[in-house]
Design brief:
Elements: E1 5-11, H1 17-35, E2 40-46, H2 51-58, E3 64-65, H3 71-81, E4 88-92, E5 98-100, H4 103-110
Parallel strand pairs: 1-2, 2-3
Antiparallel strand pairs: 1-4, 4-5
């Protein structure tokens, strides 16, 4: 079994300025870490209002996503991890333990050189 460093990325609406500003930063970090063959993955959990909005935004992303129609799991994840703002990036280690709920700050501040962002 390959253990992978995972991130859970939550963003709510396509028109969200912080989301529009952060998604390219996360994508650049993701691409660089993948080029370096790092054990790293992002799972996108959307709060878009409909499947069409999800499909349009997700088409720009290179990472995994929770299927849009799995709203029950999305609600459970938001509740479990206390997601209240957007965008949210939660960092987990290879054992699935949460490192920080402020993954956005870690990635924006340190970029790929901070990997694996042991806060």
């Amino acid at each position: 079994i390959v253990k992978t460093f995972k991130q859970w990325y939550q963003r709510r609406v396509r028109g969200c300025p912080p989301c529009k500003g952060f998604t390219p930063v996360l994508k650049d970090t993701y691409d660089e870490l993948k080029e370096q063959n790092k054990n790293f993955e992002v799972v996108f959990v959307s709060s878009d209002r409909d499947q069409t909005s999800f499909d349009g935004y997700y088409s720009e992303m290179p990472w995994l996503a929770l299927p849009y129609n799995d709203r029950e799991r999305k609600t459970e994840l938001c509740s479990r991890f206390g997601v209240s703002g957007i965008p949210t990036l939660i960092l987990f280690d290879t054992d699935g333990k949460k490192i920080t709920k402020d993954g956005r700050g870690e990635v924006r501040g340190k970029g790929p050189r901070g990997f694996p962002w042991k806060v």
